[in-house]
Structures are given as structure tokens and as C-alpha cells.
Amino acid sequence: MAPGGTIPRERIAPLQQIYDDLCMRLNTDDETKNVASQILSSDSVQPFFKEYRRDYLEVIMDLEHVGCNELFGWCRSTDAFTSPKYTDPKVPDKAGWIALDHAARFLVRVLRFSWDNGGEWDHGKFDPDNDQNLESDSEFYQVWSILRYLQIEWEAANLEEWEADLFY
User: In which residue ranges of the chain is pLDDT below 50?
Assistant: First the structure.
């Protein structure tokens, strides 16, 4: 499971469909799909996915795909957006972490970095109970979608067994 694997040819078309789904979730169309690619490779995403990949994808044998609602509930119940284990730039000891911990740290770090640096997501807080415009929900969903896509892409390149049907 080395990083930077090559995606086998037969996985490219299904992965493209998953990418198209991501573009829809990011509110891009055929003419603005390059925006999704820019976001995926941006400083708002890549350093945090690198940590997720290093500490989760490359270490855990039975990878999980964390659902959006499951992660949303976890972030609420753990107060993830104020918890140092998820917010601290210094990487914490992750012994005993589960998939939800890794996913929450990715999501929290991406959103907080974006909020603090005028990035793609600029709502500035996670407050679903007081968000009449659903901006925090939308930002949460979009960043979860990015994590979902990047994990699927990494798995397509690095795992022997991979089935696109599992991701629809």
C-alpha cells in the first residue's frame, strides 16, 4: 500500500463517474470542473489529506468509508471543532483512533484552515443549530465529499481489490 500507486486502466472510467459526482456536490458543472481539481490539489486540502493518508489509509488494514451523517453526528457529539485532538496543528498521538477520529480531524482541519485563510469555505463556524442558510451544513457536506473522493481515488491506486459499485 505505497502512496502514489498507479490507477489500473479498468478503474479509470468508474473513478471518473465518482469524480463527476464530486463535481456535482461541489456545485461545479462541465465548464468549471477544473475548480474541483484545483480544490483537491490546494493547500486547503492536500496537507490534511497527506496526514489522513499517512496515519490512516497507509496503516489500517480494514479501511472504512465514513458516511456523512455518521461523521456529522460524531463531530457534534465530540465537539470536534473545539477539541484539540482535531484542531491542533501539532499531530496528536493517534493510538486507539477509529476511522471517525481520522475523518473528523481531516474535516475540521480543512474547514478551519479555509476559514482562517480566506479559502474555498468561508462560513467561519460549525453551528448547525443556528444556521438558517445551512452554510455550515453545505461546507461540511462538501469537505466530506472531498475526503470520500480522495480516499476512493487512493484505494483505486493502491488496493488490489477495489469495486466502484461499493461507492454509489
Answer: 1-3
